[in-house]
Amino acid sequence: MSDHMLFAVSCYLKADVPQHVIDVLVYMVNPKGHEPPVPPDHPAFHEEEIDGEVHQAWHTLFDTESGYFPGPFGADLAPIHNIFRADGSPSYSYSLTFRCGVHEDDMAYYVDFLSWLAPYSGTHQGGGFVGYVQDTAYPDPRLLYFIDGHLHMGSTGPVWEGWRWRPEA
Q: The whole model's pTM is what?
């Protein structure tokens, strides 16, 4: 049986993110009613031919369902009011959140996407922690971090080995 993964990611975007990045994310979160923007020149957005058909995984990256993990799936791109500028006008950035059930064969699409997104992340709290990947075959999730514009994956296994939750008496 093939493994299934749960990707859960939430991060702030920098206030100075280029508009084309926002346009790509708007389309990915809600493709209905939006024209696809010109894709960035990055492996996450390249076309590939599968069984004679052109496939662009980024068009449907957030459109997933999974019977392997409980809870809702989907994505949201929300404007966040950050500060007021010197002239008194508000400054906005965005937060991106997604939760997707993924077959192991598709994991590379998500890793490529997160590698593209990492330089635009404004998430610094928690050491750059932005989410996790949970695999049906392993009990411990792999933690996801955006550090210095790069995606890093870590494991909770060695850190939590032997730890057990005990309710307060």
A: 0.81
